[in-house]
Every structure is written in C-alpha cells, then in structure tokens.
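pasting input
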Amino acid sequence: MKESGSDAPPFIRYYRPELDDDQLLARSKKFREELSERRSVRHFSPRPVAKEVIEHVILTAASAPSGAHKQPWTFCAISDPLIKSEIRQAAELEEKQNYGGRMSAAWLDDLEPFATNWQKPMLETAPWLIVVFRQMYTLSDHEEKVKNYYVSESVGIATGILLAAIHQVGLVALTHTPSPMNFLERILNRPSNERAFLLIPVGHPDPEALVPNLNRKKVGEVLHWHI
Ligand SMILES: Cc1cc2nc3c(=O)[nH]c(=O)nc-3n(C[C@H](O)[C@H](O)[C@H](O)COP(=O)(O)O)c2cc1C
C-alpha cells in the first residue's frame, strides 16, 4: 500500500498473478479446510505470544475494506496483567447481571450448550486481549466531528479478517461481548468518538481445551444459486 502524500499519483496499477482453474479450485478448497478448523476457544494457555505477532494480525485486520476508506477502527492490544485484571473484574460485573436476569430465558437456553457463566478467567489467562473499537465519527484536529460511513459493517469485516489471521498463524481467540462494554472505553481511556465493539482474548489453547460439538449449516441452508 502506498504512503499517502500530496505528490502520490491518484491511481496505481494493480496486479495479481492469474491462476488456472485447477489452481483456483485447489486454493479455494485448502483455504476452506484451514478456516473451517477455526473455533471459539474459552480455555487458554498462559504461554506468551510475541508482540510482533499481535501487530501483524492487527495490521492484517486493518487492511480491510471500509466505507469511503475511512478505516473507522482502533485496536487496543493489552498484555499488562493489571489492566487485564481490571477488564476481567468489570466484565464479570456485567456478566453477573447478564446471567442473573438481564438475558432472557430463551437466550440462556440458547447458551446452554456452551456451558458458559459469568466467570471469565480467560481474560487474565490469555496472554493478550485485543479490544476492537468502532469510530462512530472521526475527530478532526480541531475536535470537529467528521462523518464515517457503514461503520459497523467495516469494523465487522476487519474483525473477521482479524479472527482469520489469528487462526492462520496458529493461535486461538474468543469473540467476547460482556455487554454493555463501555467499561472498556473507560479503562482504556478511549476518546469520545469510540465505542467498544468486541473483546477478544488471544493466545495458545490450553492443551486440555474443550469446545462444544457444534454443527454448521449445510450448503443448501446458506447458499442459494441464481445461475
Ligand atoms: C458477535 C459475537 C459475540 C459473541 N459473544 C460471545 C460471548 O460473549 N461469550 C462467549 O463465550 N462466546 C461468544 N461468542 C462466540 C460464539 O458463541 C461462537 O462463535 C459460536 O458458538 C460458534 O462457535 P465457533 O466460533 O467455535 O465456530 C460470540 C460470537 C460472536 C460472533
């Protein structure tokens, strides 16, 4: 990607090597097989992960498309044990209320297969927490509000790429939403234009980690051809 600057040309050539049909098929199958192995993991090993790895996966996420290229995201990467502990305590306070009556009976029923509860030890065990923020608008140098477009769609796509990158490097993550999540804005001292989008512990899985035995929808349930 070019550096932005006033003498940069408005358009540049874009090139991808053209693959034959067999190569396309083989690559689509391989990528599908690799990404199909991704799971949300709730049991982490405390084994550290290098900061550079986290930077690479976040910059991969930050290469996502976004409405009018506003790139309306901020990622906070946290390994400081004191901040992780503060986040865990605040998340558990919200989750105690969620599991203790704020979530509907139907919602609690839907969560049963996951055997989750208000306790979130992974927020301290995982070596990294990545918090994704949406920038509802951009704050100009003069503190004026500048509009962003399709913020949730853009940040959702960036987070999908982040989760794929984490998986592809050999690590695991949990997409976590201990809502309401405004405690993250406070603890991480974020500016007024940012809203917490997701809290994602990242690391190696605990060697004894278990995941629920889930089925994914069949092709006919998710794909309709119009050909
Ligand atoms: C937006 C979103 C919010 C989620 N929030 C939580 C959460 O707060 N706690 C949790 O344990 N899992 C959470 N999950 C994980 C889902 O339960 C999980 O993705 C789903 O069960 C499918 O399992 P898999 O990711 O292993 O394929 C969330 C997932 C998404 C996409």
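fyi Residues 39-40, 42, 114, 116, 174-177, 211, 214 surround flavin mononucleotide (CB under 6 Å).
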